[in-house]
Design a protein that fits this description.
lipid metabolism; six-stranded antiparallel sheet; 15% helix; globular; binds dodecyl-COA; Thiol Ester Dehydrase, Chain A; 155 residues; alpha+beta
């Protein structure tokens, strides 16, 4: 099964969180599981906040790219199109909110499960849950905005 990120064109695959071309990044992969999207990631020992627990910034980063990937996947699905077909669907993060419910154990695989709360042409809101060993440790909200064609050119 291919992940939504496997359909990103090479020139848009340098993101630290989800770019397959970024050898230093997380290279996350987002898949459908029924009506939810799922990303799984096993943290390294250096992803530490305090010994034994995962750094919150890593969790935020995973929620971020899981959210933008889920937004793209959900848009293709809503339009009845295969991922990667033209016109390409591209999202960036407009806002990112993370609520840390309890410490996230460092070692086991982290699972992030996303659901579409709102889907419009230019704006998709994804709610995510972060789970380790079946324990919900954080919640995320990503407002994903369709990437403008001139993204970054005006700055
Ligand atoms: C093929 C695969 C490729 C794959 C591409 C891979 C990319 C991976 C991305 C990884 C994630 C990142 O780190 S991305 C990098 C971090 N993010 C950024 O740098 C984004 C910087 N910000 C911007 O460029 C801009 O502010 C945008 C694009 C986000 C929005 O500008 P805009 O396009 O002019 O938006 P605008 O018309 O005003 O608003 C459209 C709708 O979005 C809402 N909206 C706009 N901004 C926000 C916001 N910050 N928070 C909440 N909501 C917002 C508006 O209320 C409105 O909702 P309504 O009234 O319609 O309801």
């Amino acid at each position: 099964m291919k992940a939504i990120q496997d359909y990103y064109p090479e020139e848009l695959s340098h993101c630290y969180g989800c770019g397959s071309q970024n050898e230093h990044g997380h290279q996350i992969k987002t898949y459908w599981d029924g009506d939810e999207t799922v990303t799984r990631f096993t943290p390294e020992p250096y992803h530490t906040a305090v010994p034994g627990f995962v750094y919150g910034g890593l969790i935020a980063s995973l929620i971020d790219c899981h959210g933008t990937g889920s937004a793209a996947a959900a848009t293709y699905r809503a339009e009845g199109r295969e991922p990667g077909t033209e016109p390409l669907v591209r999202f960036v993060t407009g806002s990112l909110k993370v609520t840390y419910l309890k410490p996230t154990k460092l070692g086991p695989e982290i699972e992030i499960r996303g659901r579409v709360r709102e889907l419009k042409e230019r704006k998709v809101v994804i709610d995510s849950r972060v789970l380790v060993d079946g324990v919900e440790t954080a919640l995320g909200e990503v407002v994903a905005i369709r990437m403008p064609a001139d993204f970054g050119k005006a700055v």
